[in-house]
Every structure is written in C-alpha cells, then in structure tokens.
C-alpha cells in the first residue's frame, strides 16, 4: 500500500522520536515515495519485509527504500526509535557524487533491510544530530499521537524552522550514509513460514474479526501449530499481535475527521467489548483511555 505522508512543500522531510508508550502502533504493510531512516535508541523493533522478519536492537541504523514494502509487527514496551524521511527532491539535490548514488535507488540491491550496528561514538554523533533537529518541532506527545495515520487524519507535520530542518536533514542524510558504507551489515533475518505470512496478510484485512480456529483454517494449519509457529518466528504471541492490530485500527478510526465516539471506534476496531479494549489500552499506555485521549484535531 502506498502511504501519503502529507509533507508540505516547505519541508524536504521530517524527523521525530517514536516512543512505544506514546505512539499508537501502525501495523499495516506500506511503502512511500520518501526514503526512510530509522535509528533504534532503546528496546527493539521488528519489521517484516519480503516474507522475512528483522528485529533490530539499540544502536542499529536501518534504511527503508521507496519501493520497499515494510510492516512493523512489534516493538518492545521500552522502544524508542528516531524515524526520519527524505523527499526524492532532497536526495537529488544532496547526492551529486558516486559515493551517494545508492541513496537514489527505489530499492536496494541487498535482500531485506539495509542496516548497520553503530559503534558507541557514531551512535552518539547521529543521535545528537537528530536531537538538535528536534528543536522547534511540534510537541512530542502530539507527534507521537498523530503522526502516521494516512489520508484520513487531519494531521500534517510542522516545524518552527523549516529552513534549518531542511539543512539539517541534508547533513543527517549524508552523515548516516557515510557511516552505513563503512559499517557492518547485520544478517539476522528469519524466513517466515507460509502459514505465518498468510496470517499476517489475513489479519491485515479490515473486516477480519474471526476466531483463532477460522484464522488457522484460512492458513491451512492447526490452531496449535499456527500459534506456536507465529510466536517463534514473529517473536510475540499471536494474541498480542492481534490486540496491537485492533489498537492500531482504533486509533485510525478515532482520529479521523468525521465524528466518531470512543465506543464506536472501539467496536469498529474489532474489540469484543469495552472491557477488553480498556485492558489492552492500559497495558500499552499505563493509563485508561479517557485519561490520555486528547481532543481530536480540527479538520483542515
């Protein structure tokens, strides 16, 4: 699915710190015309790309290219990860020599996710550069709550100093690519069983809200085999993934401009009851939904 990040003409990209305890999960498989760069600060994040699972630890720098379909499937409870994207126009302006030609590709030659584990000094340098670009940005709570919810959301990225941000993104892009070219590429991908790949696809369908038995049947395996294999290969129980997916759908529905009550969004997301939603929400965010949900953004 092609995702529109809705970057205004004043911006060559954006950057913000994603935090599990504040950021709603975005679990749909997608890609976008922008080049994406992640830096894992704490915890772990797990992507599925081309039928393979990749789990990244702190200090990992990773790249997701414009035609690279990717799906976030899990984050540890303490995960913090900088996410930055760069418009094609910025890349074309910034990359004029052979050393940076790799950044102009729609997809990378390497199968899977291009990445490297930074040494402590390089990690500190990149993180401080990213920290500096956050000066003048929107409130972190707002960025975490609103960013990444597609065309149905009224949110769009803003920064108090677009020119300073754009210059910083240029520097950050070249700095990280120089580090990548001299770094060690990690190779811990886990090829997924066809039944697990099928489960991820089936569960991504908006109207799928059936029980484990029906899911297993759709995947051509038994319930116990699917549950066991999913947990081993994805790294989280199937029940946790399904609840994260429901929570992601809740946020998508609740944040859309058209009026929708909390209860309507809960049931539309696939939760069987408000009590189930409340339990999942509290486990993820540490407080009840009514205490943490801010007023919706006005439509633009």
Verbal overview:
40% of the residues lie in helices and 16% in strands. It has 300 residues and is of the alpha+beta class. It folds into 2 domains: 13-182, Regulatory protein AraC (Jelly Rolls); 236-300, Arc Repressor Mutant, subunit A, CATH 1.10.10. The chain has a 5-stranded antiparallel β-sheet with strand order 1-7-2-5-8. Strands 6-3-4-9 form a 4-stranded antiparallel β-sheet, with no helix packed on it. Helix 2 packs antiparallel against helix 4 and helix 8 (238-254) crosses helix 9. It is globular, with a radius of gyration of 19 Å. Mean pLDDT is 87; it is low at 296-300.
Secondary structure layout plus pairing:
Blueprint: E1 13-19, E2 35-42, E3 45-49, E4 52-56, E5 60-64, E6 71-75, E7 80-86, H1 88-94, E8 114-117, H2 120-133, H3 140-146, H4 162-182, E9 190-191, H5 194-203, H6 212-219, H7 223-234, H8 238-254, H9 262-268, H10 274-285, H11 289-292
Antiparallel strand pairs: 1-7, 2-5, 2-7, 3-4, 3-6, 4-9, 5-8
Helix pairs in contact: 2-4, 5-6, 8-9
Within the CATH hierarchy, at the fold level, what is the topology of the largest domain? Jelly Rolls
Record the strand order, biggest sheet.
1-7-2-5-8
Give the mean pLDDT. Answer: 87
Number of domains: 2
Please outline the major beta sheet: 5 strands, antiparallel
The named CATH superfamily of the largest domain: Regulatory protein AraC
General form = globular
CATH second-level architecture of the largest domain: Sandwich
State the share of residues found in helices, binned by percent: 25-40%
What is the rounded distance between the termini?
24 Å
* Count of DSSP strands: 9
The number of helical segments is 11
